[in-house]
Design the sequence.
């Protein structure tokens, strides 16, 4: 159905205002650089695994932020179905894309670490398998988005898939977990006593903060792009 | 008085099955596809290295999802062709009854394909599947409900996209992973002659999946058709 | 359009619909009484289908209010029960017979003796002898008649038609026009969206022109001059309101 292009609300019509330099992005990149310097020069080697273990400071924060990203996709989806506000859909879209990128980082760093430590590039370990399926679900989410012209329909379908995807994650986790796992037990999130030495824990936290800043900066950039695209589509009378 | 949700759903399911019975295209292609898959997978492994006994469960449930997709693809295709879906939406029936009716018809379709596929696996792989008919039927039912719950919803969505039926496998297959793994594992234990109690965990996982996704997809369905 | 709203079957006050950021219909106000037929003209993308789908209870309005057959929009099952919806798509299942298609709708609307009602509806469309023929074997014109039988099997108070003449030849259009005139004579309130100005006006008690989502002209039958209406239409559509 074709319909005329009349901007419905002020926030849809107003061009996105922003200055030339994205300070959040600059800060995020500096934070990542600082975290990497700390990982490489100021954090001791792990006794058993040696230098390979340092990839863990990228791997785990990227994984945590990817989970957070997909959680936001689901929450924004619920919000969209409830309120019908396209800003929530743009947030979901942006978060999903950045989440897929972070998941890709996890999938690349996992084998890099597994090769020297486990002696194999790929293994059907429960958490690695889960990450692979996360990647499939949200790549499918992006394919779905690309396959729908109608803006409102795209938002609704994406919201439905984003919500169902988050419900699927525990089931995939359980089924591949019951399949038996090789993965190191969680060593940070144990509530009683973290078994990670304090220096390593500090590095991990710094790295996590840096990655989260990077996530926020990318999502913000991507959100602006989505806003401008929506505005353009309005002006073209789609 | 307009029919309640269940009777409307049964009317819609009966209509879908009547159409399928008239044309039979989807059922025949799904059944032949399943048989072909079963045969091809047999030759994809060296039977002296991998025992058919070890292969059969994975083949059975892998083929189950793929042949199921063939039925699901056409589920909303027949509604879309001449916009018959608008006639259903314009009827004074609940939106849930449309989803439920389509899902019931798909369930019958998937079950009918399994009725052909399970004996075929027994025959070609020489495994005693039918000796465990009761438990196997339970596994098949639980798997089919989950598959159909998710697949019916995605079928409704896929027909409205540019990619149409090409999108359905991409969206659905990740959701079938927690169906194939428990179903294949439980079947393998069955074939190995282990006590049924060992499979209870897997069956519980299937049941939980069914409950969560039947509820979630029923709630989500109105958003996929209403504007 | 009189100020008497107590017996109006369709009313809309400032009715509008937005899709995401874009506005499809805005600020539509109209009122139709029993037996009225509104012919709704307008170029593609003017929002005619959107307006019709809102009146049919298929689409939720995002602004304004409306009442159809005594039910407040967006309405629910109660509203849909009072409506027959016909479009250029047949809304039929090609593999099923004409009778099966109409009977399914009758059952979904809770019509008593659904099969007999379906046969009566087909008889009204002079299709009784083709009742058991699969729809795919019927001509486009016959399919359209089955479609009308399907949409009117529950004797709706309101019939909404979206481009029903599309794809029909001259004799098919004439037959359809005659069937719609019979519906009107039976007291059915209709909204007819069409590009065919002559066919539309022949049936109408009211005429309206829609452009860019709004009604730019709305008048009752006695003031419509079919001879000059095409000129009026072109002026409104090309030069704006």
Sequence:
């Amino acid at each position: 159905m074709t319909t005329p292009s009349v901007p419905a609300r002020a926030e849809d019509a107003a061009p996105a205002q922003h200055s030339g330099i994205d300070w959040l992005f600059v800060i995020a990149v500096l934070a990542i650089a600082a975290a990497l310097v700390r990982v490489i020069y100021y954090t001791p080697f792990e006794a058993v695994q040696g230098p390979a273990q340092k990839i863990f400071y990228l791997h785990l924060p990227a994984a945590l932020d990817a989970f957070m990203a997909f959680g936001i996709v689901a929450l924004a989806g619920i919000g969209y179905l409830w309120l019908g506000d396209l800003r929530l859909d743009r947030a979901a879209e942006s978060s999903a894309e950045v989440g897929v990128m972070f998941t890709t980082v996890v999938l690349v760093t996992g084998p890099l670490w597994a090769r020297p430590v486990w002696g194999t590039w790929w293994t059907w370990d429960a958490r690695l398998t889960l990450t692979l399926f996360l990647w499939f679900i949200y790549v499918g989410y992006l394919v779905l988005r690309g396959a729908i012209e109608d803006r409102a329909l795209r938002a609704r379908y994406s919201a439905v898939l984003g919500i169902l995807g988050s419900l699927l994650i525990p089931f995939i986790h359980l089924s591949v977990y019951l399949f038996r796992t090789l993965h190191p037990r969680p060593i940070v999130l144990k509530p009683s006593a973290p078994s990670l030495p304090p220096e390593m824990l500090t590095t991990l936290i710094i790295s996590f903060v840096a990655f989260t800043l990077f996530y926020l900066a990318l999502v913000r950039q991507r959100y602006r792009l989505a806003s401008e695209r929506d505005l353009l589509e309005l002006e073209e009378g789609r | 008085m307009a029919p309640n949700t269940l009777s409307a759903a049964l009317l819609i399911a009966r209509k879908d099955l009547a159409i399928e019975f008239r044309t039979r295209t989807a059922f025949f292609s799904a059944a032949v596809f399943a048989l072909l898959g079963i045969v091809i997978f047999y030759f994809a492994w060296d039977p002296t290295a991998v025992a058919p006994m070890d292969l059969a469960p994975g083949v059975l449930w892998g083929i189950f999802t793929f042949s199921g997709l063939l039925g699901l693809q056409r589920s909303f295709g027949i509604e879309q062709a001449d916009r018959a879906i608008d006639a259903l939406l314009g009827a004074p029936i609940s939106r849930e009854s449309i989803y439920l009716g389509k899902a019931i018809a798909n369930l019958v379709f998937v079950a009918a394909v399994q009725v052909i596929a399970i004996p075929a696996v027994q025959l070609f792989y020489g495994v005693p599947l039918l000796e465990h008919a009761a438990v196997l039927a339970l596994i098949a039912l639980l798997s089919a409900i989950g598959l159909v719950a998710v697949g019916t919803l995605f079928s409704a969505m896929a027909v409205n996209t540019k990619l149409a039926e090409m999108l359905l496998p991409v969206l659905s297959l990740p959701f079938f992973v927690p169906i194939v793994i428990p179903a294949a594992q439980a079947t393998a234990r069955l074939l190995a002659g282990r006590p049924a109690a060992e499979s209870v965990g897997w069956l519980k996982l299937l049941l939980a999946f069914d409950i969560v996704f039947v509820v979630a997809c029923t709630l989500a369905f109105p958003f996929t058709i209403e504007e | 359009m009189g100020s008497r709203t107590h017996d109006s079957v369709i009313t809309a006050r400032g009715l509008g619909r937005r899709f995401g950021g874009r506005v499809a219909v805005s600020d539509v106000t109209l009122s139709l009484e029993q037996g009225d037929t509104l012919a709704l003209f307008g170029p593609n993308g003017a929002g005619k289908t959107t307006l019709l789908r809102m009146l049919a209870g298929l689409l939720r309005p995002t602004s304004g209010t409306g009442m159809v057959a005594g039910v407040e929009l967006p309405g629910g099952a109660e509203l849909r029960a009072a409506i027959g919806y016909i479009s250029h798509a047949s809304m039929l299942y090609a593999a099923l017979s004409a009778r099966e298609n109409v009977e399914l709708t009758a059952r979904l609307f809770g019509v008593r003796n659904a099969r007999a009602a379906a046969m009566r509806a087909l008889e009204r469309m002079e299709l009784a002898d083709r009742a058991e023929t699969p729809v795919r074997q019927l001509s486009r014109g016959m399919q359209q008649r089955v479609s009308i039988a399907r949409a009117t099997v529950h004797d709706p108070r309101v019939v909404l038609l979206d481009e029903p003449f599309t794809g029909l030849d001259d004799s098919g259009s004439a037959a359809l026009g005659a069937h719609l005139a019979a519906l009107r004579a039976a007291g059915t309130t209709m909204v007819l969206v069409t590009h065919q100005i002559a066919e539309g006006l022949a049936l109408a008690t009211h005429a309206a022109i829609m452009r860019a989502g709004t009604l730019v002209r709305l008048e009752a039958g006695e003031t419509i001059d079919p001879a000059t209406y095409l000129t009026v239409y072109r002026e409104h559509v090309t030069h704006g309101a």
About this structure: Residues 22-186+196-229 of chain A form one domain.
